[in-house]
Each structure stands twice: as structure tokens, then as C-alpha cells.
Amino acid sequence: MSFDKVRIVLVETSHPGNIGAAARAMKNMGLNHLVLVKPKVWPAREALSMAASALDVLDGVRVVQTMEEAIADCHLVIGTSARLRQMPVQLLDPQSCGEKIVASMPVQEVALVFGREISGLSNRELHLCHYHVHIPINPEYPSLNLAAAVMVLSYELRKAWLAAADKGLSIGGGDWDQEAATAKELELFLAHMKEVLIEIEFLDPENPRQLMRRLRRLYQRIQPDKMELNILRGILSAVTQKIQDIEKKGK
Ligand code: SAH
């Protein structure tokens, strides 16, 4: 079994022991790609001792400076949240999170993103995700230790994989005719759309309200493929071209 295309991303972890414990939980469940976004302390002896025999996971760690970098080449990004937020992105429970990831493997690169021990993921980071997943624990104390949350969701992923393998389902979701778009491609498209919306005075940069957030959520929900994004960008370029033609004629 291989979760080669699934990465666990830990954002600005304060306690290196949590990184080690997360690595151990990952290896127990068959995962090995760990990405750290701006860890407070790294490398760290405490991480090694908590990792026990999962040192190979720590050896393979990639360290980056932003969540955007960690997910740039991903097709599916799932963020974890101990609290339910305003303007929620589509919410998954742990079981459907496991099933969704298994259904995307091995064609899509997937990131499962965990937040800071104290403050979790910022709203900006949560908005970079296609889905949020919440582990429904005691509402009076809903916040799990970071490595425990990694364990629960990695276990759900493994369970979903075993169930799919048991049923002899083809794992991969590879029957779509076009490649999925990556997070980076979606960012470029949204930036392009924003430019054009400002140009046609649909979006007021002085008073943008929630427009781009809502559009982002719309496109994340649809998960357009590369071809669809190219078509949309082609339409945007045609709009810009048309405006330029009209302006020229008016002169
Ligand atoms: N006080 C923070 C809690 C952070 S706990 C907050 O309210 O967001 C550290 C990380 O563990 C979270 O960012 C998340 O990645 C994970 N986590 C903790 N409890 C969780 C839960 N119930 N469901 C999903 N992830 C959880």
C-alpha cells in the first residue's frame, strides 16, 4: 500500500515533540510525507525522541516558509479545524475525509493540513482549502493535541483504504479525461479573475466585501480541471481584449 501522493502539512508547530509524535503516528498508518511550514524549532532533539522508530519520516521532512508553498502542486487540500468557522468551506467528518482522499489517490496530490498548537490555522490558511475536517470530540473541550489529531485522521485514512481494498474497488479516480488543476493554478486563475473584475468595475478594490472569498469557495467546490481553468482564463483574456478594442474605437 502506498500513500505516496498524500502529504501531512504541519503549520508553525511550536513544540518539536509534537512533530516527532506526528511522524510516529503517520508511520504507524503507512504515511511518510511530512511538510513543515516555518516550524518554531527545527531540527530538534525532542522530535527525534518522540518519533521512536519513525526517524525515516523525519529524515524526509520538507521545510517551507508558507502554506501556499506546501500545497502549490496539490489538487486536493483539506484543512483541519478544532472550531467551526464563519463562512464555512464544505465540512467533512473524519470518515468521509478518509474516503475522499482514498478516492483521489493515486492520481491527485493531496495535502492534509494541521494548524498551530495555540491558534490553529488562520482564516486565510483555511480559505486555501477545498474542504475542512473536524473531529467531533467533546464540545466542552474540542481541541485535541496536534499529534493526536494527526493520528485520528491518519487512522481514518488507513481504514478507508483497507475498506476500499477489501471491496476490490479501483483506487484512483483516474477515469476523468483531464488532469486536475493544482492549488497554484487555481491561485493564478483567481488573481486573473480579480484583475478583470476590477477592470469591468464589478469589484471595487476599495470595498471588496467577501466577493473573492465567495468566488474562491465556488471554484474550490467544483474543483475545475486544467482544461476548464484554461477555458475560463481564455474567457477572461477575451473580455480584456474586447475592452481594449472598444477603447481604441472610442478614441
Ligand atoms: N485553539 C486552537 C486549537 C489548535 S489544536 C483552535 O481553536 O483552532 C492544534 C491543531 O490540532 C489544530 O489546528 C488542528 O490541526 C488539530 N485539531 C485539534 N483538534 C481538532 C479537531 N477537533 N478536529 C480537527 N482537527 C483538530
Estimate percent helicity.
Answer: 40-55%
β-strand percent reads: 5-15%
Number of domains: 2
Average pLDDT rating: 92
CATH third-tier fold name of the largest domain:
Alpha/beta knot
Cofactors and ligands = S-adenosyl-L-homocysteine
Major β-sheet strand ordering: 3-2-1-6-4-7-5
Distance between the termini: 65 Å
Q: State the major sheet.
A: 7 strands, parallel
Radius of gyration: 20 Å
Strand-pairing-aware structural class: alpha/beta
SSE string, helix = H, strand = E? Answer: EHEHHEHEEHEHEHHHH
The CATH architecture designation of the largest domain is 3-Layer(aba) Sandwich
Count of DSSP strands: 7
Q: Which geometry do the CA atoms define?
A: elongated
**Regions with pLDDT < 50 over 5+ consecutive residues?**
none
